[in-house]
Amino acid sequence: MKTMVFYDDSGMITSVRSGDDESINAEIERYKGKQFILTEKTPDYINYYVENGDVFRKPDQQSKYQEFNYQTKQWEFSLDYSKNLKWTEIKAARTAQEFGSFEWGGYVFQCDEVSQRRIQGAVQLAMLDSTLTLDWTLSDNTVQAFTAAEFEAIGQALAAHVGQCHERGRILRQEIDAATSEKDLEAISW
Fold it and tell me: Does CATH place domain 79-186 in 4.10.1060?
């Protein structure tokens, strides 16, 4: 079994193909002119790099805020990379909270995308019929009856919940933008 390792000018692995001699030889013909090496190793994109025609394992990463520098072949702190990484973490946390659950009147409601649409539909019905009463399945799978006025309040609570999630995200985005060090970024959490 042979492996073709494709890489760019910096040594970053861009593609890996493995196969028997016949299939690899066919790939060699197909990819003439591209940068690749043949090896018995089966490296992955994240943990290896190419230098001087050989594949090497990257040293251990000391912090998630480090980016591999293909020139020095070391992990280094990069403020821009770290800010992007932190913002990705914050967006994921914001999404988890926004589409998790919210509380109104002592009841916990699911608010994934489908649940939000259902609540919005119930609010619209409530606005059309003030005598409306609907049974609603709550987050813990219990069922509770709510009136039209209560559904309007539930809709307002949902909107406030979503708004609070995004406001918190905007505040944290400003903190990320203002960060000047790894320590600053580590202090930011959802």
Answer: no
